[in-house]
Structures are given as C-alpha cells and as structure tokens.
UniProtKB/TrEMBL annotation:
This is UPF0223 protein BN988_00832. It comes from Oceanobacillus picturae. It comes from the Bacteria. InterPro entries: BH2638-like_sf (IPR023324), UPF0223 (IPR007920). Pfam families: UPF0223 (PF05256). Belongs to the UPF0223 family. Gene3D superfamilies: BH2638-like.
C-alpha cells in the first residue's frame, strides 16, 4: 500500500480509527473475502462520521483515486448479495 487514506484532521481519534477500519475492509474485499455484515456495520459507522452524501462521495472518490478500489461497489455488493462472505475479485 503506497497511498494514504482520505482523513479529516477534525475527526476524533476514534473516528479516524473507525474510518481506517472501513477503508482497510474495502481493500480486503478486493484482495480476499469479507463478511457482508461486517461491511454493512463499518459503513453504518462511517455514515455516523460522514453523514453528508456529497462528503461521502468526495472521500470515496479520493480513496478510489489513490487505491483503485471502489468503496461504493463494495457497499453495493454487500447490500445486494445473498452470500455471507463475498469478494470483489
């Protein structure tokens, strides 16, 4: 990983940890398998930190530009899949 996560310096330490956990799980979805419920749980926590849809889109776009991984597609697949474990491979 040769990139940085899009973080906001106004977030608390716990919020930064939670956002890092979210992006870490997004990476894992592309590299191996993730649990559907875990993805939805970390996304719900992210929504508490970033309630604005436009701000969420900016953060997702910044992460995708840096990493090549689409958080939007991972969350969408987690919502739609019937499988408990899934991968973006």
């Amino acid at each position: 990983m040769n990139y940085q996560y899009p973080l906001d310096e106004t977030w608390s330490k716990q919020e930064i940890i939670d956002v890092v956990n979210f992006f870490s799980l997004m990476e894992k979805a592309y590299e191996s398998k993730v649990n559907k419920q875990n993805v939805l749980a970390v996304y719900n926590r992210l929504k508490e930190i970033i309630p604005s849809k436009s701000e969420e889109k900016k953060v997702f776009a910044a992460f995708e530009k840096e990493s090549g991984y689409s958080s939007y597609k991972v969350v969408k697949k987690a919502r739609e899949t019937k499988e408990e474990l899934f991968s973006m491979k």
